Amino acid sequence: MAMEVKLHQQEDGPRVLKVLEALKQASHELQTHPSPDSPESNSSSAINALLELETESDNILSRDPQLSALSQHLATLKTLVESLRQSSGHLSIRSFLTRRSSTHCLSKLAGSIESEIQAWIDRESLESLTRALEEDPIRDEDDLIKLLTQFEDRVAQGFNRELQDLILKSKVFTSLESVLCDSTRSSKRVRERSAFAIAALIKFNKDVFVGQILMGRPTISSLIKMGSPDAIRVLCALVRLIKSPLVDEIEFNGEIPKIISFLNSEDLEMRVMAMVCVLEIGYFGRKEAIDAMLEEALIEKLMELQRSEHGGDLMRESREKGFLESHPFASCAARFAVQLEVGEGLRQRERRAFKQQILVRVREASVSDAEAASISAEVLWGASP
């Protein structure tokens, strides 16, 4: 019997999902304008849509025990609507109070219906995603990308305790990390999308999920090993979310040289993302991470980028809107120095010491006295990032 119910659920799934999405929208409208007589709303049509589903509930909802509470809410809704309609033609105080009470209950009930529907959608979506991640991420790649994008969009809506419980129960974080870290099972496209989903989970609730990043460590190593612009984009997002503890892990695991090496990439987008990552690490990094970057000739590499066609001098060049977008390496050596100056990872004496080191490296790497003077002035006085 359980197998039969499951087969019915899989067969009816798309139909049920379509009906419930429409019902969710109707419930949302009903919460805003619960009175059927409200001229500025579509509450009457929303109520009718809800009642139509209540009529069909035996056929659509009864096969899934997870929707039993929704069936009960719809039955209650029918009773409330009948009460409202019976009192609408009377002008007595009693009828007025009945309408007020029923309208309030209707709005509250619509919220419960919407919550039940969203919980069902979340359960079904998570089950589909974890099954797709565990079975064969290479097969039906487009479908998996769609599921990953939907999951990312869902958690991006903000914290929800019921959703968090479902996520923890499904162990989807482990599945996402497994796909990200195993290049033999997944395409680069799927791995990148899994990485974005992981970052979305960290933003969803950092307190719960950040430990899995810091304790496991394969996520960060895999992102750097992948070495694509999107992988580094996710790494930057994680650094902004987790801050100094993540930079400590990056430095401890010897990943700093690999990040600096991306500044030499032939791909412009990759060089840009590497520079963004360097700036993030500069803002949150402690002394050991900054030392590691300088030892990899970071300042010299940044000056080379500043001399390129996509570089420039922010103190001299136009500051009009869009200039930095077309010249992403403009004043990048000074912008790194500014990150150290205003960042969270260094003590005041460490900031002063690093500024002096940067000035020495700028003078040594300059191709002319004019360049040395220009960049040194930017380092000393700051450059608008």
From TrEMBL:
PANTHER family: ARMADILLO-TYPE FOLD PROTEIN-RELATED (PTHR35834), ATAXIN-10 DOMAIN-CONTAINING PROTEIN (PTHR35834:SF2). This is Nucleotide exchange factor Fes1 domain-containing protein.
